[in-house]
Amino acid sequence: MPRRKRKTLFLKIRLNAERTIRGLLSSKKAVSVVVSTVVLTAGVLALGIAVLYWAYSWGNLANLEYSRAVADSSHAVSERIGFEYISFSSANNQLTVNIINWGRANNLSISLVYIWDSFHNYVGTGAYFPSQLTNLTTGSPIPDNSLNMGDEGGFTVRIPNSLPNGYYNIRMVTGRGRNFDSSFIVP
Amino acid sequence: MDRKGYSALIATIFMVLVVLFLYFNVFMFTLNRDTDFQDVKSRSEQLDADRNAEQVTITDVAITQDSSSGQLVVTCTLVNRGSVPVQMARLWVQDKNLPQNNVGNVGLLTPLVVLQPGSRIQETFPPVTIGGASASDQFYVWLVTFRGNSFSTTVN
After folding, report:
1. Does residue A58 belong to the interface with chain B, where contact is any CB pair within 8 Å?
2. pTM, whole model, 2 decimals?
3. Residue A53 pLDDT more than 90?
4. Nearest-CB residue to B90 (from A83, A84, A104)
5. Do the beta carbons of residue B134 and residue B98 sit within 8 Å?
6. Left (φ > 0), alpha (ψ -120 to 50) or beta: where does A120 sit?
7. What pLDDT, on the 0 to 100 scale, is given for residue A19?
8. Chain A contact for B40, CB < 8 A?
């Protein structure tokens, strides 16, 4: 190609390019679409992240609650109580109960004691709150008022009236809601 | 080429995958917790089975009285006829001749009293205090194990 012709071609291309760019810059036709797309994308992203965190926090909460419920049930299932000796003193209408935690759950506490006679009638109010758990050997209070695995302890229940001679049933309800039954005789 | 329906199809596949992924996670989590709980239940049933397998016979019981302290010293032969080892937790003694405050006990942690299956041991327990008791009285003696069982006998 001759030199002059080539120069003319370059000039034409340059002119066309400048015209195109100027046209693009001066035209505002597509700006609103771009802006709306950017805004929409940002909104969707923000909402997505918010929903993600919301779902994550609820999921975490549900996870914790479910795990705790299963752990509580597992502990309750592992609770076992053996009755060592139950005696009733007519001098002060006091029932003494000595127990051992032979289960696989620590922190076993006694929340309620039910007593009824051989005819299945409740004795007095029926439900009694036990006293502080005490060490069987020393008689000193047991810390936290609960028994760990293999621990022994005793508690008393004050009954309003004297018990006639006979056979009685006792039910202990633990802090985790388990029931353990035994019986005793008032001679 | 018509590609109008592709985006809806791809979105549906993605949605199904996401739902399946979430469901799988929840299912696995629940399954794990359930398995843990079943393990605990099995162990707990094993506890009961072991407890039921404890069988101890108390024979040749002799109760003597310490001349200086007046405490009762119980000697006996223990035979484990069960299939599991047994550890004694506490010895209880009740004097049937006394009307009240007639029960004494002693913890059996030092030394440990452990019976292997089929074993027979002669044991002298630490002294038990019962105010006003005499060795010639009639006694009710029982041993409590760490599995919550009681094995008893009477003396005199």
Report:
1. no
2. 0.79
3. yes
4. A84
5. no
6. left
7. 86
8. yes
